[in-house]
Amino acid sequence: LGPTLEFYAEVSKELRATQLALWRVDEEQGGGGGGNARYHTATWGLFPRPIAPSDGARSEQYFWFMGRWMAQAFMDGRLLDMPLSPVFMQKALGRPVANQLHTLKQVDPAMAQSLELLRGYIAQKQAIYRKEQHVEQLGLDFTLPGYPSIMLKNDGQDIDVTIYNLDEYVELVLEWTLERGIEKQIAAFRGGFNSKFPIESLLCFEPDELLPLLSAATEDWRLEVIMEAIKADHGYTAESVSVMHLAEIMGELDANEQRLFLQFITGSPRLPVGGFKRLYPPLTVVRKLPEPPLTADDYLPSVMTCVNYLKLPDYSSKELMRQRLQQAIQEGQGSFHMS
């Protein structure tokens, strides 16, 4: 079970790699994940990066694979770590999506705000003429913002945006962002998915019902929830000090540490839908005994991801347990040993 979950988690992560250039850049994350980050974090959900009509063969292959892989995950009952945009899911399901600003706000709020400002200029054309406020000063041309290789019109790089063609520019940006620039990727995704089973079978669900299977929903890490979920065994009981320290430390983890902890324990960076209560097998904590002359403080925790089994030394203090757990979850990622 553990290696299987790890496989799905790793594929999820690599499909979000910035070097693949599959997804729109998330400006709020500094270019898709924080400057030179290797993976997209997608504040607003992953949405395909637009491509020109003459390009896209490589992207189409990735999206076809992604569709087939997600269909297989649904069939196997596996959770993924792909925070897709709800708009992407609507289009993947074949549902109509309006090329409107309210749609763009769900994909790229910063661009939507800019286009809203430009539409304000359109509404005030006469006032702009009188005040000689020229849209030309914005330095825009008929290429897609952020993607200068994509022409909104033939020779678009040589056509300046003016107050006279501003309304056409806004409509073309919406059309290329939400439809024409991503239609190949959507078609490839649907083709890959349909190679496993018809994606139309999912039309009885709303995107909001499917997205929790693809990305982490809100998870409950309160102390009482964690204590109820832990099964203490082989040297520990629910009243053991080390078990209580563990639960307290888990409740104090930030969002990234929670993902690392779950990846270390289960092989997946997220809990199943329903949280700790739905984790199967349950999180089992057993005592890891030292071999003389070493003491418990000399050991790191270890796990059996196949059964969500944590072998935890009986540390002399909560702070030392925290340090050892942090070291284990940071340095033990992707490491498998036979035991």
UniProtKB/TrEMBL annotation:
<dbReference type="InterPro" id="IPR000569">
    <property type="entry name" value="HECT_dom"/>
</dbReference>
<keyword id="KW-0833">Ubl conjugation pathway</keyword>
<dbReference type="GO" id="GO:0061630">
    <property type="term" value="F:ubiquitin protein ligase activity"/>
</dbReference>
<dbReference type="InterPro" id="IPR045322">
    <property type="entry name" value="HECTD1/TRIP12-like"/>
</dbReference>
<feature type="active site" description="Glycyl thioester intermediate">
    <location>
        <position position="306"/>
    </location>
</feature>
<dbReference type="GO" id="GO:0043161">
    <property type="term" value="P:proteasome-mediated ubiquitin-dependent protein catabolic process"/>
</dbReference>
<keyword id="KW-0808">Transferase</keyword>
<protein>
    <recommendedName>
        <fullName>HECT domain-containing protein</fullName>
    </recommendedName>
</protein>
<dbReference type="GO" id="GO:0016607">
    <property type="term" value="C:nuclear speck"/>
</dbReference>
<dbReference type="Pfam" id="PF00632">
    <property type="entry name" value="HECT"/>
</dbReference>
<feature type="domain" description="HECT">
    <location>
        <begin position="1"/>
        <end position="339"/>
    </location>
</feature>
<dbReference type="GO" id="GO:0000209">
    <property type="term" value="P:protein polyubiquitination"/>
</dbReference>
<dbReference type="InterPro" id="IPR035983">
    <property type="entry name" value="Hect_E3_ubiquitin_ligase"/>
</dbReference>
